[in-house]
Amino acid sequence: MRFDQLFLEDIRNRVSLSDVVGRRVTWDRRKSQPGKGDYWACCPFHSEKSPSFHVDERRNRYKCFGCGESGDHFKFLMETEGLSFPEAVEELASSAGIALPAPDPQAARKAAKRNSLTDVCEMAVRYFQHVFQSSAGRSAQEYVQRRGLRAETLNEFQFGFAPAGRDNLKKALMAKDVSEAELIEVGLLIKPEDGRPSYDRFRNRLMIPIHDDRGRAVAFGGRTMDPDGQPKYLNSPETPVFHKGTMLFNAHRARKPAFDAGQAIVVEGYMDAIALWQVGIKGTVASLGTAFTEDQIMRLWKFSDEPVVCFDGDVAGISAAHRAVDRILPVLTSGKSFQFAFLPDGQDPDDVINAGGVTAMYGEIEKALPLSEVVWQRESSQARIDTPERKAALEKAVEDLVGTIKDERVQKRYRMDLRLKLSNLFYEESRRNRGPAKGGSSGGGWRNKKPGEEVDRASFARVEAPDTPAYGVERSFCTMCLMYPEMFDRHFERISQLTYSNELHSMFMSALVRITTDLAEGAVTQIYNKLDERFYQILQEAIVSSVEQSEDSKASTLRRWDALTNRLQILKDDPPEDFVEMLFLNYADMLELRMLELELEHETRAMEENLTEETWSRFQALKQDLARRQEECLRDEQELAERAIKMRASKSSRHA
Description:
By secondary structure, the chain is α+β, with helices and mostly antiparallel strands.
């Protein structure tokens, strides 16, 4: 339905934007001035501690000065509750007591037709439920009991049963004045082309309704009760009210819990989604057995910024995840991505829950790999790189994939991350071909190891911690620059000016800066062997540690860079981006403090040798600047510590 701008403006004027937004935020009393229609709060779209989200009721607009999100009443409901534009207008018009405008005749006929078809689906739901609860549904009742589904779950999801006969549903609904044509159009009947009578599409199947965003039944999924029946699961076909490429099973229930928790889970089938819903993981949807479409990806990003795709760890599950990766890459944008959790081979969510309860399921979700790591594993795990041509082929495959990302900033970050991985992979291969290194180190090549081949962890050279000032801070900062390339890119100018007390760190960061600038356009196959070998000491230390952690299970985003996360345990708790950036900048501050201390020592010596008004002024200014920066740094450290305590407490309460 198209809405007149005067009608939309009338809604905006009658419904207070602060009331709409106030459902999701707590206003900051110190900064807000309600009398002037000026409101401030912490942003509901990204994690922050200081209020940067502003509502201007005089202009009926909101804007976050942290993440850039902006809009009006309708967009806020669309972004926070996953509503479509017409649904947002309808909800706000109802709140304002304004009647919706009468649609044009053609639109009215289409809407009436859709409503008629959903009414037919709702009648089918009631029929299937009645049969399920009767003696005819005994096999289906026994099946759901074996699956451990509780009565409230069966009622919530409106489980039903389609009996085995050819036309049971057809007779039952046509007796209630539903036409055969409507039953065919909504996909409940199949009409043979040879002129034979139409018959029920679903027979001897456990029936689960599929609902639209408004909670109306628009289609069905049916699981066969015949042990030899094929297909095992059967969905309704495309109809005027059901489009597989735009819909997600359970979306109308999962939308709000997912947004509130900041986490959406995507599983392969509707039985998986129901199993997770039953144990309290409410923000779960299923993809209805189709490959991800752009519409579904965009819808999932309204639920959370990084939905977790949770597929079986078998060949079929990994293959489905790889197909999803190819659909996701082109539409990636800053702050929006996906993670992938692969369950142990042969297990589905029900198996994990039955074996270890909801805690075990959360444990599998927390092992989720970031999209970039799934891309890297897919491209590199089976690649052969024993010749220059094969190295070039792998690099081209990676570059072609990165090239599909339309967002330039995201593409740049992926390119940097994957070029570093390629550099290390090629370096390891060349070192292995040269034979054992000094001290018995034979190099790497673990990324290309054959199935069943053991990784020789002892073959990797470890970087010992030298007795140099700020060693821990410097090493943490180096690895954070690798772990968070977007922050390295964002603060590149500042980072390029820092100095380090440890020679290895200094060399490493210089090489990293060089890769990002003058070597950025060169082929990795031509670059990797021109870098100082010591560059790979830190790179390998970080990468090898992830192998050790992932021998028995898939490594998660924050299980990479083990040396860093063991030193900073909070990074294993998946902290919000603004916390990580504050930590990152705190390390930069500490490195700059050391530079100031060295400068102050230099000025002190200069003053001792030649005390003049000029040297005394420089000494005093540096001393004051250092004291101020030390105080700020300490204050930031205290704030980080307090936030870390709160995050751990919040995580414990969620999983209790």
